[in-house]
Automatic annotation (TrEMBL):
InterPro entries hit by this protein: 6-hairpin_glycosidase_sf, 6hp_glycosidase-like_sf, Glyco_hydro_9, Glyco_hydro_9_His_AS
Family (UniProt): Belongs to the glycosyl hydrolase 9 (cellulase E) family.
Pfam families per the UniProt record, alphabetical: Glyco_hydro_9
Domain Glycoside hydrolase family stretches: 112-584
Native source organism of the sequence: Panicum virgatum
Record-annotated membrane-spanning stretches: 74-96
Active site (record annotation): H514
Source lineage: Eukaryota, Viridiplantae, Streptophyta, Embryophyta, Tracheophyta
Annotated protein name in UniProt: Endoglucanase
Annotated GO MF terms: cellulase activity
EC number in record: 3.2.1.4
UniProt keyword list: Carbohydrate metabolism, Cellulose degradation, Glycosidase, Hydrolase, Membrane, Polysaccharide degradation, Transmembrane, Transmembrane helix
Annotated SUPFAM superfamilies: Six-hairpin glycosidases
GO biological process: cellulose catabolic process
Length: 619
């Protein structure tokens, strides 16, 4: 049975016979009637009335992207805009990269850094022997290539090393102090040296000196009985006309007179200082294990010789007594044993450095007019600063603490003495501290004090200590830095004469430096012993500029005579320039701070490791 009726949705409706009961059909009809009574909106009517073609076209106008149904036209426009924006951004970025940029130039180096570059060049000008290609001092050449070999009592090569000052004498005592001081500055401030491109240069300077020291004694032996004191002669006997390094005025390259070698058999001060130089250098070159160990072995041999054969090196040498007279060797024992401990980690050296009797002999417990003056002769002030570093950073405790605390307290007293309020030392009207009490050649002592003040202030800062006490009064570390800066700035030109005492720095500096090589032109003419006197006596400026040389300095009235024949004003020395370099690198750059760990690279842990825990308990 079939039944046809009009479909209220707009089409025929066929109802097929099925097995539903009358009651089911009655209920379905009731529901259908409710649905049929609902009015359709225009969209629904258009869907139902549209043909198959119309349905496809309408579906194509929309795009189902999963979570959203959007108009196809809107989607295409959006995608096009995004692609266009990406292309535009790429073009803009390409143009921006193609346009040359004007980088802001780095700030110019500060005066300390500029002076540091120059001060290091002085050591290049002082080299003896066969010069490397990169020496960069055009008026210097190979010189004294027969040193040691020409002395019948020695007959071994002593070629190399450094000339001490304006002559051609090679003196181990001040040279060793110079190398120790340079090594100390590198250990503390290697990052600063590297930042200004001078780390390789200063390491090369130190190695040149250390290699020469290894030639001046039997460095492969465990025990020795002699050490070279000097090469060349500076005898200044009245009326003597014997050619030597003081009587003659010659370029080192032209020297043709005999150069004797002086040795010593009991010279604790010299040997202990040389041991300090090699020990400090071994820390600088710890990245070269074989060379570092070679330096340590030589240092140990020298230090044992210093202890076994007591005596002052200058006692038996007239040249040494006149030029660099040593007043004692106890300070070198404290200084040398401190560096030996840092280079080896052997606690026996620290035990010696902190021995109260040794400190007493060195003068650590009494003042005196020269207390706190750090120089090639007296290293006590430097040793106390070095041992204060050990206490601040490692705090080794018993049995060293008592003496280390004493050294630390004495260091604080020394720093107080540098301040003008305490009047321990006079000052010129221009502000230069007179650490040698108005005697000539004052600047070498000033730069050493500036370095000690700078490095000690950096130690305090690294130990989170804002300052130190002078009696009941507390002073900040900036006070120490201010002292160091004012002294170095005086040397660089902030003085009554507006004179820079570092050759080549600034516009107004000494032009008649007491220096044979700098005063004689390199013109192919061989000037003999007396032939160079005309260059010594001329009032014309030196034909060669010895860049970076710090001259002896002004007098106690801030006066200065730029006269070649007056060495008390115009002569430069290794020891003076080493202190200048150390002070300049400590003050240079924007930041402060020392390398806390490199100094202790060979020092083992101060306390034994704790024992292992006991085995688990078993019932």
């Amino acid at each position: 049975m079939s039944m046809y009726g009009r479909d209220p949705w707009g089409g025929p409706l066929e109802i097929c016979h099925d097995s539903a009961t009358d009651d089911d059909r009655s209920r379905n009809l009731d529901i259908d009637r409710g649905a049929l009574s609902r009015t359709l909106d225009e969209t629904q009517q258009s869907w139902l009335l549209a043909g198959p073609g119309d349905q496809g076209r309408r579906r194509k106008k929309y795009l189902d992207i999963g979570c959203l149904v959007v108009s196809r036209k809107f989607f295409v426009w959006t995608l096009g805009v995004l692609l266009a924006a990406a292309v535009f951004a790429g073009v803009v970025a390409g143009i921006a990269k193609a346009i040359p940029r004007r980088h802001r130039p780095p700030p110019p180096p500060d005066d300390y850094t500029v002076a540091l570059h120059k001060a290091l060049m002085f050591f290049n000008a002082q080299r003896s022997g066969k010069l490397p290609k990169h020496n960069n001092v055009p008026w210097r050449g190979n010189s004294c290539m027969k040193d040691g070999l020409s002395d019948p009592a020695v007959r071994r090569s002593l070629v190399g090393g450094y000339y001490d000052a304006g002559d051609a004498v090679k003196l181990n005592f001040p040279a060793a102090f110079s190398m120790t001081l340079l090594s100390w500055s590198v250990i503390e401030y290697s990052a600063k040296y590297e930042a200004v491109g001078e780390l390789d240069h200063v390491r090369d300077i130190i190695k040149w000196g250390a290699d020469y020291f290894l030639k001046t004694f039997n460095s492969t032996a465990d025990s020795i009985d002699r050490v070279v004191v000097q090469v060349g002669s500076a005898a200044t006997s009245p009326g003597s006309t014997q050619p030597n390094d003081h009587y003659c005025w010659m370029r080192p390259e032209d020297i043709d007179y005999p150069r004797p070698v002086v040795e010593c058999h009991a010279c604790s001060d010299l040997a202990a200082e040389m041991a300090a130089a090699l020990a400090a250098a071994s820390i600088v070159f710890k990245d070269n294990k074989a060379y570092s160990q070679k330096l340590v072995h030589g240092a140990a041999t020298l230090f044992q010789f210093a202890r076994d054969r007591r005596g002052r090196y200058s006692a038996g040498s007239s040249d040494a007594a006149k030029l660099y007279n040593s007043t004692g060797y106890w300070d070198e024992f404290v200084w040398g044993s401190s560096w030996m401990y840092l280079a080896t980690g052997n606690s026996s050296y620290l035990t010696l450095a902190t021995n109260p009797k040794l400190a007493k002999h060195a003068g650590a417990f009494w003042g005196g007019p020269d207390y706190g003056v750090f120089s090639w002769d007296n290293k006590l002030a430097g040793a106390q600063v070095l041992l204060s570093r050990l206490r601040l950073f490692l705090s080794p405790g018993y049995p060293y603490e008592e003496m280390l605390r004493t050294f630390h307290n004495q260091t604080s007293i020394i720093m107080c003495s540098y301040l003008p309020i305490f009047k321990s030392f006079n000052r010129t009207k221009g502000g230069l501290i007179q650490l040698n009490h108005g005697k000539p050649r004052s600047l070498q002592y000033v730069v050493n004090a500036a370095f000690l003040a700078s490095v000690f202030s950096d130690y305090l800062e690294a130990a989170d200590t804002p300052g130190w006490y002078c009696g009941p009064h507390f002073y900040s570390i900036e006070v120490l830095r201010s002292f160091a800066r004012t002294q170095i700035e005086y040397i660089l030109g902030k003085n009554p004469l507006k004179m820079s005492y570092v050759v080549g720095f600034g516009k107004h500096y000494p032009k008649h430096v007491h220096h044979r090589g700098a005063s004689i032109p390199k013109n192919g003419v061989h000037y003999g012993c007396k032939g160079g006197w005309k260059w010594r006596d001329t009032k014309k400026p030196n034909p060669n500029i010895i860049v970076g040389a710090m001259v002896a300095g002004p007098d106690r009235h801030d006066g200065f005579k730029d006269a070649r024949k007056n060495s008390n004003y115009t002569e430069a020395t290794l020891a003076g320039n080493a202190g200048l370099v150390a002070a300049l690198v400590a003050l240079s750059g924007e930041g402060h701070g020392v390398d806390k760990n490199t100094m202790f690279s060979a020092v083992p842990p101060m306390f034994p490791s704790p024992p292992p825990p006991p085995a688990p308990w078993k019932p």
